[in-house]
C-alpha cells in the first residue's frame, strides 16, 4: 500500500511528498533525459578483476603462466593509458566549458553563438552546461509572465473562451479515419484475393486468423508500436493537415517549456523518426514528441518530494500541445497521453478531485494565456520544426522574435 502524501509549506513554497509506489512507476514513464555527467570507464577495476582471476586459477604450465602475466600487465598498462587520455580529454572539455560560461555571463557572446554552444552541449549530452548557458545568457528563457496560482472555476475558463470539453477530451479523428479506411481496404483486398485465388473457406479462415494473430502479437509484444508507426506514416503521407497539426502540437510544448524555464532537448514529428532515434532494441511504442532537460525534476521525483514550482511547470508543459491545437483548430485531437500523464502524477500525489481540478484549470489558463500572446511566434516555430531545424535554431528564432517584447 502506498504511503499517504503530505504537503509541507515553507515560506511561500510547497513541497509534495510522493507515495513510494507511484513515484517508481512515474519515473519509468516520464524519464526522458539524463544529467549529462561524464562517466569514465573503470579500467583500473577491470585490470584488478583480471589479476584476481589469474591468481585464483593458476596455470600449471610456467610458460603459459608467464604469458598470462605479460598479457595482464599489457591490459592494465593499456587501460591506464586509455584512462589517462579520457581524463585529460575530460579536463580539457571542462576548461573549455568553464571559459564558455564565463564569456556568456560577461555578455561577450552573441545570441547566435550562445545557441550554437547550447546545440553542441545537448548533442554531447552536457545537459547541465546547456541549461546554465540558457539561464545565464538568453533573455526570453524562463521569462514568461504567469497568472496567479489560486482556485479557478469552470465559469472562469468560459470567460476566457475556453471550452473544457473540446480542450481536455482529445480524440484523434484524422488517424481514426485512416485506421477505418485501412480496415475497409484490408477487407476489400481479402475479398478480391479470395475471388481471384479461388481460396476455400478453410484457407480464408486461416488468413483471417493469421491477420488477427499478428495484430494481437503487436499489441502484446510492442504495445501497438507497429500499428502506431503504420497509422502515423499513412497519416503524414495522406494528410497535410495532420502533418501541420503535429508540428503545431509539438511547437506548443517547445515554446511553453522554453518560456517557463524548461530547456527543450530534442523533438521528433513522426513515429518513424522517433523509432529511428530510440535506443537499439526498444519495443516500446514510439511517437512524435519533445524531450527536455529535466534533471532537477527527475531528482525531485527520485527523492519523493516535488516542489509546487516543478508541479506547476510540468502541468503547463503537459497541456501545451493540447492548448496549441485548441487555439489553432478550435478542438484538440492529439495529446490524450499528455493529459493521462498529468492525471497520473496528480493521483500519485494523492490530490483530491477538487484540488486536481484546480491544478489543471490553472495550468490550462496559464498555458493558453502564454500561447495567445505569442501565436505569431508559434506559427513560425511550427514551420521551423517542420523543416527539421535544430533545437538551437528554434531557440534563436524565439529569442530574435521576442528581443523587443516587454511582456513575455
Describe this structure in words.
By secondary structure, the protein is mainly alpha-helical. Among the domains are: 7-36 and 141-169 and 252-401, no CATH class; 175-235, no CATH class. It has 18 helices and five strands. It has helices spanning 20-30, 43-56, 62-105, 111-124, 127-137, 154-159, 164-167, 173-197, 201-222, 225-238, 240-259, 271-277, 295-303, 308-329, 336-348, 353-373, 375-386, 391-401; strands at residues 7-10, 13-17, 264-268, 289-292, 305-307. The strands form two sheets. Strands 1-2-5 form a three-stranded antiparallel beta sheet. A two-stranded antiparallel ribbon has the order 3-4. Strand 1 and strand 2 (13-17) form a beta hairpin. Helix 4 runs antiparallel to helix 5 (127-137). Mean pLDDT is 75; it is low at 1-13, 20-60 and 75-80.
Explain briefly what this protein structure is:
Among the domains are: 7-36 and 141-169 and 252-401, no CATH class; 175-235, no CATH class. It contains 18 helices and five strands.
In one word, what is the shape? globular
Number of helices: 18
Helix vs. strand class: mainly alpha
Helix content, binned percent: 55-70%
Cα gyration radius (Å):
27 Å
Number of strands: 5
Q: Main β-sheet: number of strands, strand sense, barrel status?
A: 3 strands, antiparallel
Which characteristics define this entry?
18 helices, 5 strands, 69% helix, globular, disordered N terminus
